Amino acid sequence: MKHFKLGFIINPIAGIGGSVALKGSDGMVMHALALGAKPQANIRAKLALEILLPYQDEVVIYTANDQMGEQCARELGFSVEVLYQAEHKQTNSADSQQAAQALLSQGVDIILFAGGDGTARDIANVVASDDDYQQVPVLGIPAGCKIHSGVYAITPKAAGRIIELMVNKELVTLTTGDVMDIDESLFRQGIVKAKRYSEMKIPSELRYVQAVKSGGKESDEFVLQDIAANVIEEMNDYDDRQFIIGSGSTTAFLMAELNLDNTLLGVDIVSEQTLSAADVTEAQLFKAISAYQGSSKLVITLIGGQGHVFGRGNQQLSPRVIRTILAQPGGRDNIIIIATKAKLAALANKPLISDTGDAELDQQLSGFMPITTGYKDQVLYPLASPQ
What we know:
Elements: E1 4-10, H1 29-34, H2 41-50, E2 59-64, H3 70-75, E3 79-84, H4 93-106, E4 110-115, H5 117-127, E5 138-142, H6 156-167, E6 174-182, H7 184-187, E7 194-203, H8 221-237, E8 241-245, H9 249-257, E9 268-271, E10 274-277, H10 282-291, E11 295-300, E12 308-310, H11 319-327, E13 335-338, H12 341-345, E14 352-354, H13 359-365, E15 367-374, E16 377-384
Parallel strand pairs: 1-2, 1-4, 2-3, 4-5, 8-11, 11-13, 12-14, 13-15, 14-16
Antiparallel strand pairs: 6-7, 8-9, 9-10, 15-16
Helix pairs in contact: 2-6, 4-5, 8-9, 10-11
């Protein structure tokens, strides 16, 4: 029996800076760990592999040692062959590249990797630079702070579904996905500068693979002013509310209308229309919400072109933070999603996505949510858990 040869790489430190507001892991691992960050990449990779549990007899996983893939695959009971040994527990870019080279040399059917845009660049540096391997498809499990590239599945479980199709020998069309990345040093200053580095072949199951993130700020300032006016009016109506302002250009416009400093790529806390805390970590946010005597309102927007509300670029909004917000008076109404109708239309009827990493919470959040699209103007739009 010919086994499906699954190449599997995890960047163990991917996304480690997200929950502690570092907005990336490049050069910040020890700092993130000192702030209490916990690695999440293996947890998210496990969600993808769990989809393949019914096919354990048909799949052999080729991977790197320890946290780079071996541990995750063995814990789930898969047949594993370790082709690359990282010398240190704190792996780096070179380890990802050398692991990819080892997998390609083995002739794997696809490389499934967990990481962010930096990891995608590492894989592309090997796959896209060698004519012998440019036909080998790759697929990313989203696990980093930055997911601008079009080589990722929309959720970890979606990545597993795509591999499942291939294991079952169903027709899976290949296309090319752009590998994008941004300058993390500028990112931490609130400046988004994305750049296309290369492309790789990916399975093109559009219901499972994300689009390249839409960049730039909303152009229709009148619509954004109406949205901001609606939120500000709600702020005026309550004295016992603090407002948690999520990341993104749409929420940044709201903060500008309030004449408050804003962390474009972080999370801020506003009380009585005054900035009470800026660029908070997950731990700081949880403490502030838990200690507050009134209710906390979360104001967030969606990632343009992708539709993610939770789980991308806002790891500070952890399951325990969201649960605490939901448990306060107001319940689901404490979550205020703002977006222009143009941004929603660009999703082409695809639902918004909640990918918190907590399946029970994602299911709890699922359903139609009111989206504030103007002044006294809302639409109902579906929010779905990962598939």
